[in-house]
Every structure is written in structure tokens, then in C-alpha cells.
């Protein structure tokens, strides 16, 4: 079982998310090139020193916001029954990328805006790819635990990569258009589900 975060850790995470939201708003409004760490800190109501305690660069500040979906996705997978989780992924993708309340719609709108901004910003793209790399690494460990000792380690890696890239590609394709900006119509879920079906074809954990 995972350790429950301490109060200090929860407060730190909340502060990071507030800074991330402030950064996302400013990036969307002005473009990343025109935004400074100082302006993000001021918008988030923290000192510049506090900002740099949490983040190395202004682009790094959006990492926690982009990682929100990955954390939800990892927790949902970890709660699955032991065994080959391949068949579980389509339902998980639909659940994670189809918002059911205002908070989830807002989170997808943030992601939509950030990915559109990142399309023309290499530094933001680096943050996005790092978030996906970290998510894939965590998924690999979860899949291995669910599948058990008999699973082929390479197939575990393939499944983790397929699942991560399905989400990434689905979100990027969705963000590139103007349709369904908060995910309510199911566009990102449908795109990611389609990507997973193709990317995971032929993978067999052998558990």
C-alpha cells in the first residue's frame, strides 16, 4: 500500500498546483516568451524565492498541472485486480479522459490550453515529454506488480509505453483542433482509445 502523504506534503503539492495554474493562465494569455517567473509568482501570491524553491524554470511550473491526469490514471490502474491489465486500459482511458464534473472539465481545459501553447514552445514540450516519461516509468512498475512474476519484462515495458503514448497522442491530437475544448464530448477519450487499440495490438504479457 502507498504511504499517505503528510500534511506538509499535501500543502506543498497544493502550492505547486496553484503556481502551475497561474503559469498556465499567463502562458495562454501572453505566450511563454512574454511571461517571467516573477509574474507567475506574483499571480500565484508567492515570493520569487518560493517559486524557485519548487521549480527550476518558469516552464517547469506547469508540470504539476500536466501531471494531474497521470496521477489519476496511475491510481486507477493500481486499484485494478491482479492479472494482465491490458483489457482494463480502454475503460481506464475513457474514465480518465471523459470529465464527469466541473473540476475534471476544468482540468482538461487547462491541459488543452497548455498543449496548444506547447506546440510552439520547445521548453514546454520538454516538460510535457518529461511528465509522460515519468508516467510511463510508474505505469511500468504498476503493470509488473499486477501481472506477477510470470510476465515478460519487455512486454511489460511495451504495454506501459503503449498506454502512455496513447494518452499523449490522443491529447495532442485533440488539443491541435478547436473541437470539444473541455473533453465533454469525449473527443480526447475516443482518440486515445483508438491509439491504444492500435499501439497495444500484439502485446502479450505472458502472465
From TrEMBL:
It comes from the Bacteria. Keywords: DNA-binding, Transcription, Transcription regulation. Residues 13-73 form the HTH tetR-type domain. The keyword DNA-binding applies. One of its GO terms (molecular function) is DNA-binding transcription factor activity. Residues 36-55 bind DNA. InterPro entries: Homeodomain-like_sf, HTH-type_TetR-like_transc_reg, HTH_TetR. The keyword Transcription applies. This is TetR family transcriptional regulator. It comes from Agromyces mediolanus (Corynebacterium mediolanum).
Amino acid at each position: 500500500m502507498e504511504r499517505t502523504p503528510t500534511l506538509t506534503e499535501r500543502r506543498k503539492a497544493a502550492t505547486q498546483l496553484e503556481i502551475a495554474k497561474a503559469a498556465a493562465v499567463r502562458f495562454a494569455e501572453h505566450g511563454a516568451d512574454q511571461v517571467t517567473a516573477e509574474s507567475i509568482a506574483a499571480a500565484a501570491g508567492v515570493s520569487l524565492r518560493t517559486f524557485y524553491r519548487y521549480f527550476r524554470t518558469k516552464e517547469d511550473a506547469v508540470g504539476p498541472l500536466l501531471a494531474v491526469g497521470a496521477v489519476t490514471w496511475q491510481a486507477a490502474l493500481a486499484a485494478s485486480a491482479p492479472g494482465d491489465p491490458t483489457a482494463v486500459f480502454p475503460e481506464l482511458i475513457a474514465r480518465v479522459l471523459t470529465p464527469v464534473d466541473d473540476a475534471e472539465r476544468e482540468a482538461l481545459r487547462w491541459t488543452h490550453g497548455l498543449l496548444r501553447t506547447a506546440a510552439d514552445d520547445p521548453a514546454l514540450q520538454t516538460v510535457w515529454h518529461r511528465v509522460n516519461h515519468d508516467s510511463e516509468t510508474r505505469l511500468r512498475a504498476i503493470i509488473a506488480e499486477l501481472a506477477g512474476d510470470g510476465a515478460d519484462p519487455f512486454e511489460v515495458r511495451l504495454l506501459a509505453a503503449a498506454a502512455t503514448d496513447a494518452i499523449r497522442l490522443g491529447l495532442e491530437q485533440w488539443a491541435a483542433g478547436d473541437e470539444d475544448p473541455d473533453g465533454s464530448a469525449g473527443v480526447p477519450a475516443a482518440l486515445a482509445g483508438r491509439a491504444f487499440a492500435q499501439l497495444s495490438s500484439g502485446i502479450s504479457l505472458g502472465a
